[in-house]
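Weekly sync notes, structure subgroup
Attendees: PM, AL, DS (notes)

Item 1: joint prediction request from the bench team. They want all two components modeled as one assembly rather than separately. Inputs as received:
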Amino acid sequence: MIAYEKFSLDNGLRVIVHEDQSTPLVAVNILYDVGSRDESPDMTGFAHLFEHLMFSGSENVKDFDDIIQRAGGDCNAFTNSDITNFYTILPTQNIETALYLESDRMMALKINQHSLDVQKKVVVEEFKENCVNTPYGDAWHLISRMAYKKHSYSWPTIGKTVEHIEFAELNDVQNFFKKHYSPSNAIMVLSGNISLAKAKVLSEKWFSDIPSGPPYLRKLSLEPKQEATQKVVTKANVPMDAVYICFHVAERKHKDYYATDLLSDIICNGKSSRFYQKFIKEKKMFSYIDAYITGSSDPGLLVIEGKLSEGVDTELAIEEIWNELEKIKAEPISNIELQKYKNKVESSLLFSESSILNKAFNLAYFESIGEIDLINNEVDIYANLTSEEIHRIANEILIPENANILVYEKQDA
Amino acid sequence: MPDRTQAPPISKIEKIDFPQPARYTLSNGIPLWVLDTGVQDIIKLDIFFNAGRPYENKKLVARATSKLLLEGTKKHSAHEIAEILDFHGTTLASPVDLDTSSLILYSLGKHFPKMLDLVCEILTEPIFNQEELHLFQQNTIQKLKFNNSKCDIRAYRQVTESIFGSDHPYGYNSSPDLINNIKRADLVDHFSRLYNADNCTLMASGKVSAEMIQLIDQKFSTTLNRGESAQPTLSLETQAPKRIDDYVSGAVQTSIRIGRRLVNRAHEDYNGLYLLNTILGGYFGSRLMMNIREEKGYTYNIFSSLDTMLYDGYFYVGTEVDNRYADKTIEEIYSEMERLKIDLVDDIELEMVKNYLMGNLLTMIDGPMNSSEVVKAFLINKLPFSSFNHLIYKIQTIEAEELRTLAVKYLNRESMWEVVSGGVNN
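Output from the run, pasted for the record:
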């Protein structure tokens, strides 16, 4: 059970406090409700580039990291398709340092041409490191483009191409800041050694004078229902053949989300799971296989990905995967198998509660989708799932018309 | 309205309390360390043996033994073991580092007795199934192929092999031949020689009750027999350092690893080097990061690292850069080392790094799961817990002259191996 309190400032900033006196530290987590889905198709990767720029100077702060380090803290951030999240962990006696820095950059970001030029280069190197100079690094470019024709999930967070990043200009930066980085579009979580009373005083002090800013209304194109199997085969300089099979699934807030999550566990989570046993141990067709859901705020994907053993034909491997999926669709799974995955979820939720940073981010994310109670309710939602629900969902989504298949074929050296 | 032109005052961390674990000795002599600081009903039991590479009779056997332990006992097949663990929401991992082989159990408190039974069975009656070994070999070779297609891993493998030599336990690399050469009898030998009570340490953390401690004692006293403590074999062949160019066709970046043999944690210079390394490349505000990423934008990440093992240690700088900047980056790395050898670190920077490290140590021991990692590192390196306080004292008191002296002593270009993997300057 994670206890929390929630309040809002007049400018719309939502603040959530989770007090944990067992630690000398406090986590300051600020989530901005903007991700790569909010970008325009001709300027992708901008939300993530912007995350870098948030460390490059604001009205009164030349170097964010410098001051945080001086206060004994550590900070970082990440961007995904839905949100941009900044976090600092530091000794609680220095919490005002973190609040001051966050407040200053929420009030007025101040980026010069040199900072922009450097961060563009840094992000281009990040792009190359993760997506070009690594085997299978372009998988999410290929999958996103295949699975999403209308919705802005059709490009990955890092951006479609390095050119998009190189095009970014200073006035784009200021416009993006004005549009998305206002208090009404942000959620702050203070988690750790801090009382509610103190959190209220300090939030008022550092954030209440920041103007609310214009509201941002998200208007994204819906992805139409897919009608037929899609497939992309790419010949690449990879060490072994690989396949990815991706199915459209429900959004994070949908009631089917949890059953879909367990379905992906049933397919392949842990060494006792169906696909691990069948494909790694028994048939030895794959040297690696996994299944998971993307968990995105808008409708996401259930992904099955595997690397093939030497000499195994990719078509045969895909056919065998379908055969196994048919077994899951044929009849509801046993109560024992269902209970196994419920127990795994219970355990991993409990272990994840031992970190104040984890708790802070989860609170912020659930609040961003308007479902903060999930922080404590999820465990019961999973516990109440039935094998019939999972069976229904398996039959709805694990069908050829809903499948996006990516195949990597090893290029002969 | 707050005055944003003034940063709030910063208060220093004056002291950090080491999470002192309680020590018990089981009836067969195994030390059990307990960190009972948990709120959630979870427990982590870490069982580790001096059974890493320095104690191998044959290359790669330490890792293979550790991985195959989970693949079947006389009573349960690999599949059944996996079912039991997964059904109880338990994770049982068998990680290896260079010196140590571990079994780490993460369990809910309510399932702990049953899971402990399984762990003891695994340590008493492993069968080292031949077919499972064969599968392990095949998949390990596949993984090696994957790793060798990545420039960063290629460069890392070559630099550590060069530093220690290709027959040294800390230096040798795996190869398909070595992997295929592992025999079942090697695993049985490694296990029977090294997985004994005199070569083992236990650590429990989380919510650990008196009953659990009693249960651990009861189970383990019949699980592991007395034996001999392990003796290392270390044959160091040192060569004069040089640059190794590893051209990878089609690579759009170049991985650089520059490194040398250094000291282990018991060495008198270690604590000072810990600070020196942090300043050079050990945190975001480091010299390398500020110069090569934040000023020049050559890379997404650059770091330096002080890696220590029980019997030795090494230092290296690593980064992935645009091919065009590979040589320029190497020169910048050396110029940052030179700067540390010539100029004194100024007070402002020194204070920042000291404050940062104190906060970092506080984070490292926050909560039972984190604390247990720190405690384990002391135990593996056979260091008294008081060395934590020595490190803190060094952080608080070190002066710029000492850092410069250490830089002059250790950061010399002639002592560095350079490995450059990727598109280089094509």
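Discussion: The CA atoms of residues 291 and 304 of chain A lie 4 Å apart.
Action: AL to compare against the crosslinking data before next sync.
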